Amino acid sequence: MKKIDMSDKAITRRLKQVDQLRELSLSLMKAKKVSDEKKKQAEKKVNAEN
Questions:
Q1: Radius of gyration of the chain, Cα coordinates, nearest whole angstrom
Q2: Looking at the whole model, is its pTM more than 0.85?
Q3: pLDDT tens sequence for the chain (50 residues)
Q4: DSSP string, 1-50
Q5: CA 33 to chain CA mean position, Å
């Protein structure tokens, strides 16, 4: 079984990585919402023209 580095530096590095992944996840969720809203607006515009 592998030994896990539990030094202060290693723990800090892992916490920073988790924080970066969380920020990325939140950004992607936000981008999806904006994309979905734009798609709905475009569909409404097309439907209104027909």
A1: 21
A2: no
A3: 899 999 999 999 999 999 999 999 999 988 877 788 888 888 887 788 77
A4: -PPP--SHHHHHHHHHHHHHHHHHHHHHHHHHHHHHHHHHHHHHHHHHH-
A5: 11
